[in-house]
Amino acid sequence: MLNRRSTEQRELIREILQQADEHLDADNIYEQARQRSPNISLSTIYRNLQLFKELGLVEEHQFGSRRYYEPAPQTEHHHLVCLSCGRGFEFKCPSTEGLKSRINKEEGFRVIAAEVCLAGYCPACQERLTATAAGNRTIPGQKEVK
Ligand SMILES: [Zn+2]
Ligand SMILES: [Zn+2]
Question: What's the gap in Å between 2 CA and the centre of ligand 1?
């Protein structure tokens, strides 16, 4: 019985990862899993993520201070990491293909994986940060409230 439940929970975690349209951290997965399996624990989430990682089913990325997960294998993509909200965004970088073959030719080193991670601020955070900064000033054309 216990075994069956842990298999179901494992499937649930996999499903959440497969269906996610963004990178999830363990807390995100836990919140979603709890809605469907109220007895699931955070340590179960961590244990399964570790297992999936070992089996090559998920990829783990460190964005800022948090670790995020996404299903693997994937078409190669790279990440933009927001320093404000910590979210990871994906981008494709065809030039890494060229880099790989150049390294192969010039260094004789066979590259099998390349990951580019660029840090900065996402559009939403830029907007928020600009709005916060603007809040300290009087907006032109608006009457100053005394
Ligand atoms: Zn952000
Ligand atoms: Zn990704």
Answer: 41
Contacts of 105 (CB under 8 A, 6+ apart): none
| Extended beta strands in 14-57, E state | 24-25
> Helix or strand or coil: residue 18?
helix
Distance (Å) from CA 3 to ligand 2 centroid: 32
Domains recognised in the chain with CATH numbers: 1-70 (1.10.10.10), 75-136 (3.30.1490.190)
Structure confidence at residue 11 (pLDDT)? 95
Q: Which ligand is the nearest neighbour of the Cα of 81?
A: 1
Does the structure show a pLDDT above 80 at 21? yes
0.85 exceeded by the pTM?
no
